Amino acid sequence: MEGITDPKYLWMGPLGLIARGSKKFLLSEDGNLEIYSIKSSDSGRYTCKVNYLYNTEQLTTEIHFMVYVYHIPDKSLHLSSEFTAESCKTDKIASYEKHLLEKLESLISNLSCEIKEWSTQCHASTDAVEKITYKLTFQFGVFPLMLTIADLCRSPPCENSTSNIRKAYENIKEFFELQKTDSSHIDQLYLIPGTLAAVKVDHCKPGFGKNINAGRNNSMCPGCCVTCPPGRFSAKHDTICILCPVGSYNEKYGQVECENCPEAKSSDGKGAKTQRKCHRILPMWMAFLISSAATSVILVTTWIIITKCCKKTIAAQYIREAESEVKKRLQDFANIASDEEIQAQRSKLSPVKLENDKAADSVEESMALLNNDELTEPSTHAGTSLSPGQAGQSELETNIESLPALPNQRNFAPSNQQRLLADIIKTKMP
After folding, report:
1. pTM higher than the cut 0.85
2. What are the chain's domains?
3. Where do the Ig-like domain residues begin and end (predicted)?
4. Which of 155-164, 184-193, 200-209, 220-229 is the least confident region?
């Protein structure tokens, strides 16, 4: 760029400062960085720090890069074939198994491949109706040497593993086709036509996996194996990067195992990326003691809360009952006060007025008795009959005069008033 003078470049990688003269890294004068013999551990964050003069001003710029190491998945073949046999005797099967394995290895020996995971199964077949037959199944895998002994496999045939696997399958298929007509080794074993099956399986190198999102690398190499990031590892030729288990961590890319936390320390969960995630753990007895103490505190707190709530409930109920009792007593006092006020008001009335009122009441009661139509006439002596007027007058006089004098009690008129009342009634009678 114009105006920039005297630039100086400084590169930092995942493992620290990248020095000039390194056999693995090459630093050019214009600031380019080249990596040779790249490995999975070379993945990670790279920073280029540039110090330069711009119009006599000293400036510093940092540029960050993410480097992902990836490779095309290696392939292996998993094959199986079935034979008919007259029995499942171990000696006969073992003899033919040895013969078949030697023949297959000779077919792929020049292709930098080997046969692994060999297995044999023999069981009775239900296909035949006339007689019982047995079915013998062979299963095996063809692996390129670069998957099994990658450090020792540096030759071009090893590196071209995909084409070698394809050629190995063609040789094995041709061999089994010949077995349809050639059974000279053991006449009792016959290949079942169409039972040869092969499946290709992807394999990643240790430290790589296909379940990692590597940004743009997914579009540059779809389905490729990418280095496992910190917190994960891959130990076998698998396609999955596994999280570091509890009590371990991994700070680097492309690792085949995780490092254990220091003694008496552990991580909170899986996938710890740094040692800082490891913390000191309590002994079992101390953890049990703390747990018991916490449980006791919770129980005591609960008991206190329940007790306070019960006390408040009982107190509220007592207050309600006390209030009702107080209200009842106050009502009684109010009634007593009302009676006393009534008596006090009565005592203030004039005695003459009170007696006049009582006399008027007596007159009204007497008039009510006179108006009673159901009064019976008494019988006369010696057959004499009286006129209605004489009979009524005589009877009324007799009844009134024969009334005993009532004592001068409360609410009753005195005897002199009673006599006066009788005279008034007589004068008013027709």
Report:
1. no
2. 4-67 (2.60.40.10), 74-203 (3.30.70), 220-280 (2.10.50.10), 351-365+401-430 (no CATH)
3. 1-60
4. 155-164
